[in-house]
Structures are given as C-alpha cells and as structure tokens.
From TrEMBL:
Residues 39-48 have a biased composition (Pro residues). The keyword Hydrolase applies. Residues 36-67 are annotated as: Disordered. Keywords: Hydrolase. This is Class F sortase. It holds the Pfam family Sortase. It comes from the Bacteria. NCBIfam families: class_F_sortase (NF033748).
Length: 232
C-alpha cells in the first residue's frame, strides 16, 4: 500500500496553524511529504468528535508542574514507541519546522511552547511514515492505537522523566483543526502528541490528524537505557 506523510503547522498572526494543513482555504501550512511502500497503513483510533476546548484536567490539578527543561526522548511503552525529540522552531513562512523524512524516526517539540511537565500545553509532532525508514514506519506510526489511560513518558535534559496519562485520542479533519484545544493556555501541565491520519488520497495525502491529549501525573529520575546486546 502506498501512503504519504504530510505535516504543516505553525502560528499565523500569533496563533498556530493547523497540523498537516495542506491546501487550507486560508493558505496556511507547509507540506512535507514522502511516498512509502508500507506493509500496512498506520492504525487509526475510533472516530470521535474533535475537542474544541481542553479535555478534563481535574486529575492534573493537584500535581505541581515542573520547571522548564528540554525534552530528549518520548516513550509509549505499550505501543513500543520510543523516539528522540528535536526542538523545532518556525520556518520563514511562519510554519513550525518538523524533522525531515530521513530523520522521521525522531519527533519535534515546539520549543516556543511549554516543555513537557511545565504548566501549559507541550506539543510534540511526528511523522507517521517515511520512505527513508525500514518498512516505511516513522516515529508515530503506532500513535493511532493509543488508548485513554495509556502512559506516556518524556525524558528531559535535566535528568527527570515527566509522566503523563492519556485523556483522549481524536481524529480531526485538517480543515477543522482544533487550534484552541491544542495550543490554548492551560493552568496545568498538558501534553499533545500529533501525527497524520484518517483516509489517504494520492492527490492530497492524509485528510486528518491524530491528536492525543494527556495530562501530567508526576515525575521521577530518568531510568538508564538498557545496555546494547553484543552481536553473535
């Protein structure tokens, strides 16, 4: 099956544009694309209405946010997702940079926003697929299989790991991207994970985005990575 990854995101007039927003009526967004031959398309969450405001945050209210520190790795252990995090900023046209397709095993953190664990929404964006990677599978290939209650861990440069619990997973048409729900200010520490999803068209790419909303549940020291096994 052939598929293509597209991402376009960023502020416009001071507000972030939609993610993977190719050909928006307002002319916003930038397309980054690559054709792949993947054995299977990325998994998709069960369709549900897009959130127009922040998901419930009661369980996060009692957890004190962390200070600012750059994220270096994101993990969703149940799905086998482990990806290095690259800070990304803005392109000249006001869209947010994303890792290139040859670096699509990594994800991008929008560094102008909150850091994971810091008060506010931390936004992490990744490709679902890339022709430059084995099997065409990029960092967030499995993101559509996330469930409510799943745990997300983000290792930070200060040696701490910020832990999050998933509140909601949505599939949103690019033309109806919920800017406020994703980028709007919050009093508590929140995390948004975003990739492409929905139906695929050879002419326009993916028609939607998968958006994961999660809240901060606490932190601890980063566990050391297991040593690599010697080859036989």
């Amino acid at each position: 099956m052939r598929s293509r990854t597209e991402h376009g995101r960023g502020p416009y007039g001071g507000r972030p544009a939609s993610v993977a927003a190719a050909c928006l009526a307002a002319g916003l967004g930038m397309v980054v694309q690559g054709v792949v031959s993947a054995p299977q398309p990325p998994p998709q969450p069960r369709p549900r209405p897009a959130l127009t405001a922040d998901p419930p945050q009661e369980s996060a209210a009692a957890v004190r946010p962390l200070g600012r520190s750059r994220p270096v790795r994101v993990r969703v252990k149940r799905l086998g997702i482990t990806a290095a995090v690259r800070p990304v900023g803005l392109n000249a046209d006001g869209t947010v940079e994303v890792p290139g397709l040859r670096q699509a095993g990594d994800v991008g953190w929008y560094e102008a926003g909150a850091a994971p664990g810091q008060a506010g929404p931390a936004v992490v964006l990744g490709h679902a697929d890339s022709a430059a990677l084995p099997g065409g599978r990029a960092a967030f290939y499995a993101l559509g299989a996330v469930r409510e209650g799943d745990r997300v861990e983000v290792d930070r440069a200060d040696g701490s790991t910020a832990r999050f619990a998933v509140d909601a997973v949505t599939v949103v048409a690019k033309s109806r991207f919920p800017t406020r729900a994703v980028y709007g200010p919050t009093d508590t520490a929140q995390l948004r994970l975003i990739t492409c999803g929905g139906a695929y068209s050879g002419a326009s790419g993916y028609r939607a985005n998968v958006i994961v909303y999660a809240h901060f549940t606490g932190s601890g020291p980063t566990e050391p990575s297991p040593p690599a096994r010697a080859g036989r």
